Amino acid sequence: MSELKQAKCEACRADAPRVSDDELAQLMHQIPDWTPVVRDGILQLEREFKFKNFKLAWAFHQKVAQLAEDEGHHPALLLEWGKLTVTWWSHSIKGLHKNDFICAAKTDALLAS
Ligand SMILES: C[C@H](O)[C@H](O)[C@H]1CNC2=NC(N)=NC(=O)C2=N1
Question: Record's CDD domains (predicted)?
């Protein structure tokens, strides 16, 4: 079981450190379905979730939005027919913080709920 999904996001200040390359490698093992992507020079975590129709994707979109409000950490969400693309990164540090891995693990857990 991933320990990340038990953790709580902490306030991420602009001077917080981004995860190191070593931490990134270790944390990625805990969220194997996510892909690190670089967009506009910013390292992000992304996963596509597939559903049978729009309504199911929309319902999952709402669950992820509620998670974001509960954690005070917010993803980019792209809702399409049968698909939700979730992207996590920390705006304040223009990169990845442990919060992003916590939220990715919690997003995975929502799928099972
Ligand atoms: C004040 C508030 O907590 C901050 O603006 C939070 C809100 N949600 C956030 N979400 C993400 N992904 N990155 C942030 O830096 C961030 N900052």
Answer: PCD_DCoH_subfamily_a (cd00913)
